[in-house]
């Protein structure tokens, strides 16, 4: 079932910084997994260990059943990596750079395949361009092309849309979907919650080197998502009567909107009772609106909770 | 064995040299010509022959050594330092390639460039003096061993260096003095006894002496000893590189 299996992985850098603490993670074949976390949470370290760029302090990683240290030749051939930094040479041509990447990954030259990759990424016209002269977005595409030229089964995208314009971001999402259709497992790290919400199947949250949770995106929102009912009143209220105290309502500054937070998965959400109590209290309702909490709210709450625990 | 990877790294490095043809090959030729003009003609005409060999001819092996030692270190150190500096190295590190293959690619290319430079200098020198090589096979052996071991040494510096200053400092403060004091332009027998003894601690003396022997059958130290020192140096470099890759020093830490 899982294509990448991470067990008890820890990493302490030479300066004593512990970037990962006993991380366990199963990445399922063919899924899109988004790893969310603030800067310095350990996302890049985790990816780097799986790809062989950083040595782990302890723990193990297997890819398709092969150990990433002992059988590194097999595991690395299966993996493609798009790094966060625009780490490219300066003076070579796009085409040469791709040939270099393919060779590194022990694949014999295949111009037809390279052409396909370049065309998929709208880079074909730029194949003879010098890397240094490309725009940031183009460089990002070249990095993706370089990661794909050896036909990997697992693709790591480390913040693929950081500093990328809206159009390119949408292109990137489409590309990710296209790769998934082709059976490639995709792991992406991101700051952008909407990105995870838009394209991921599962979401993992990392903070301070710990994997706080991994869950199906919908299940996660279901489990942790709260809902709010906003009640707009015809005339503003200054204070609430005692009968409404149990509902812990929030009053907006102008006194027009009452906000009720509830758990939509409970049999009794309390809305019915609230409505009746409001009517009894003599308020007249003008409008109502329910708001679902987004992945972003969930994420912020998790990180906050984790930070406070540690402090 | 990942032959494709070795091939692309080697090709990439060689291409870099041929794209900067002037810098890679014309400058060693020019400096050789300058050395010949200054040492060979201007000063050399006032210096007696060293043993049986005229001074102009005597400095040829030293000049070649001077060039390949500095070029090997410079080429190999830059070759691995630059991708580390730009971050491109991630690709090599994440590729299915062993450290031996990485070394064959990078060090092999640096050593090849040095070998080409040595040949170019030898050809250039043949316009100034008549060159006779007594033991061509040994000459080639010394040349190859020196190119490989000093390229390895440069590779180590490229892995160790944290910035461009680090990259420059060893060649400038260690290699250049050792080469100049290693008998490139003189036989250490010309030195006072005290400095002769000091010179024996300079490994470059053994390299130049052995290499010179392959030309003229005359040497400052015995050929066997020269060969032993070169192989020792090569082994030491290999061990250091092996340790660096094993521990991930400056690469995977």
TrEMBL record, chain A:
GO terms of molecular function: ATP binding; ATP hydrolysis activity
Keyword DNA-binding: no
Entry-linked Pfam families: ABC_tran
Residue ranges of coiled coil: none
SUPFAM superfamilies documented for this protein: P-loop containing nucleoside triphosphate hydrolases (SSF52540)
UniProt cross-references to InterPro entries, sorted A to Z: AAA+_ATPase, ABC_transporter-like_ATP-bd, ABC_transporter-like_CS, ABC_transporter_ATP-binding, P-loop_NTPase
Gene3D superfamilies: P-loop containing nucleotide triphosphate hydrolases
Domain of life: Bacteria
Residue stretches making up the ABC transporter domain: 4-233
Keyword annotations: ATP-binding, Nucleotide-binding, Transport
Protein name (record): Putative ABC transporter ATP-binding protein YbhF
Native organism taxonomy: Bacteria, Pseudomonadati, Pseudomonadota, Gammaproteobacteria, Thiotrichales
Automatic annotation (TrEMBL), chain B:
Entry GO MF terms: ABC-type transporter activity
Compartments (UniProt record): Cell inner membrane; Membrane
NCBIfam families: PRK15066.1
Transmembrane spans: 21-43, 55-82, 140-161, 167-186, 198-215, 221-245
Keyword Chloroplast: no
Domain ABC transmembrane type-2: 19-248
Gene Ontology cellular-component terms listed: ATP-binding cassette (ABC) transporter complex
Listed InterPro entries: ABC-2_transport_permease, ABC2_TM, ABC2_TM_bact-type, ABC_2_transport
Pfam families: ABC2_membrane
Family according to the record: Belongs to the ABC-2 integral membrane protein family.
Keyword Transmembrane: yes
Primary localization class, coarse: membrane
Name of the featured protein: Transport permease protein
Keyword terms: Cell membrane, Membrane, Transmembrane, Transmembrane helix, Transport
Topology of the protein relative to the lipid bilayer: Multi-pass membrane protein
């Amino acid at each position: 079932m899982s294509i990448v299996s991470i067990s008890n992985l820890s990493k302490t850098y030479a300066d004593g910084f512990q970037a990962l603490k006993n991380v366990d993670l199963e990445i399922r074949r063919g899924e899109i997994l988004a790893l969310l976390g603030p800067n310095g949470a350990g996302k890049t370290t985790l990816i780097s260990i799986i790809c062989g760029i950083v040595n782990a302090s302890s723990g193990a990683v297997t890819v398709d059943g092969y150990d990433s240290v002992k059988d590194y030749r097999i595991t690395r051939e299966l993996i493609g990596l798009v790094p966060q930094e625009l780490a490219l040479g300066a003076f070579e041509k796009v085409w040469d750079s791709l040939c270099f990447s393919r060779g590194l990954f022990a694949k014999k030259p295949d111009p037809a395949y390279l052409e396909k990759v370049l065309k998929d990424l709208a880079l074909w016209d730029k194949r003879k361009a010098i890397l240094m002269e490309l725009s940031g977005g183009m460089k990002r595409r070249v990095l993706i092309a370089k990661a794909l030229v050896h036909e990997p089964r697992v693709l790591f995208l480390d913040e693929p849309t950081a500093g990328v314009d809206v159009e390119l971001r949408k292109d990137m999402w489409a590309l990710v979907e296209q790769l998934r259709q082709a059976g490639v497992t995709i792991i992406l790290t991101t700051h952008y919650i909407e990105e995870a919400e838009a394209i991921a199947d599962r979401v993992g949250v990392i903070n301070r080197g710990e994997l706080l949770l991994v869950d199906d995106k919908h299940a996660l929102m279901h489990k942790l998502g709260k809902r709010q009912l906003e009640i707009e009143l015809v005339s503003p209220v200054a204070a609430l009567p005692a009968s409404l105290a149990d509902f812990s309502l929030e009053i907006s500054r102008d006194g027009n909107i009452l906000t009720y937070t509830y758990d939509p998965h409970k049999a009794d959400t309390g809305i019915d009772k609230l409505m009746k109590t409001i009517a009894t209290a003599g308020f007249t309702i003008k409008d109502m609106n329910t708001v679902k909490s987004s992945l972003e709210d969930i994420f912020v709450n998790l990180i906050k909770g984790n930070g406070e625990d540690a402090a | 064995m990942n032959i494709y990877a070795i091939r692309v790294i080697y090709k990439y490095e060689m291409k870099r040299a041929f794209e900067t043809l002037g810098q890679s090959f014309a400058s060693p030729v020019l400096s050789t010509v300058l050395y010949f003009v200054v040492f060979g003609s201007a000063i050399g005409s006032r210096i007696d022959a060293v043993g049986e060999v005229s001074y102009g001819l005597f400095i040829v092996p030293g000049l070649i050594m001077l060039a390949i030692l500095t070029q090997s270190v410079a080429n190999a150190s830059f070759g691995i330092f630059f991708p580390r500096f730009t971050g491109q190295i991630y690709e090599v590190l994440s590729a299915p390639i062993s450290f031996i293959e990485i070394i064959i690619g990078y060090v092999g290319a640096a050593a090849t460039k040095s070998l080409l430079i040595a040949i170019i200098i030898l050809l250039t020198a043949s316009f100034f003096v008549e060159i006779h090589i007594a033991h061509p096979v040994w000459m080639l052996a010394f040349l190859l061993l020196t190119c490989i071991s000093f390229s390895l040494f440069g590779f180590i510096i490229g892995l160790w260096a944290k910035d461009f200053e680090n990259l420059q400092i060893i060649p400038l403060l260690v290699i250049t003095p050792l080469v100049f004091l290693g008998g490139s332009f003189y036989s250490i027998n010309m030195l006072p006894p005290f400095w002769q003894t000091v010179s024996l601690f300079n490994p470059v003396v053994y390299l130049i002496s052995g290499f010179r022997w392959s030309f003229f059958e005359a040497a400052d130290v015995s050929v066997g000893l020269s060969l032993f020192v070169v192989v020792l140096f090569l082994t030491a470099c290999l061990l250091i590189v092996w340790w660096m890759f094993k521990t991930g020093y400056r690469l995977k830490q």
